[in-house]
Inverse folding.
């Protein structure tokens, strides 16, 4: 079973210099970041496993969205 990470109910307000990002790009970037995190967690089996599971979930969601869009 996976751990659920709670996120704050309200996200920070965007800064004037922030740029808009589409969902496909955001998920793609998150996958790459999780890949890096998983590599850094090599000594932490649970943390690495959780990062890899999250990365796979995002990859499946991104592929499904691309195929249906």
């Amino acid at each position: 079973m996976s751990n659920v990470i709670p996120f704050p109910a309200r996200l920070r307000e965007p800064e004037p210099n922030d740029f808009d990002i589409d969902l496909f790009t955001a998920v793609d970037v998150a996958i790459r970041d999780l890949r890096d995190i998983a590599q850094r967690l090599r000594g932490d089996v649970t943390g690495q496993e959780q990062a890899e599971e999250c990365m796979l979930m995002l990859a499946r969601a991104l592929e499904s969205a691309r195929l249906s869009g």
In short: The mean pLDDT is 79. Residues 45-68 form the longest helix (24 residues). The chain has two helices and no strands.
